[in-house]
Amino acid sequence: MMYGRRPLTKLETGLYAGLAAIFITVFARQMLGYMELAERAAMQATLMNTVTAINIRLAGETLNQRRNNADWTQSNPFYLARMSPANFVGELNESPSSSGSWRYDSENGELVYTPRLHFKLQTSSGRASLRFRLVVLPAGAYNLVPVTPYQWE
Description:
Blueprint: H1 10-63, H2 77-81, E1 88-91, E2 101-105, E3 110-114, E4 121-123, E5 130-136, E6 142-146, E7 150-152
Parallel strand pairs: 1-2
Antiparallel strand pairs: 2-3, 3-5, 4-7, 5-6
């Protein structure tokens, strides 16, 4: 039994549908921002893990006196780290790669990341792809540094 209930009018139904659409739009926009933050964090974690693995390998080879003083800066960092993320598509010189993936540009010796979401990404080159080069620090350790400056908030 329904006590005191009446069916909704077309105006009320339209109003409720409009409010639901506004809430869904605001929620979706907020979620895209969080998804972009998560992608940026995953990209940075991949860079840090790769550099750490390369430097651990360097330290291990130095301690075991197997270091042959070869220049690793023109090698694929994922190969040197003996690991690669699931979204690594391989050594591809042509651009662009699929979004959300890593590739190694062997022609330029650069690791390239093409993000899925790049609303808040600003690069000096104007491209959405981020490029990193393996360099030797003065202390002898390796680091992946951006080829062109970028800001990703």
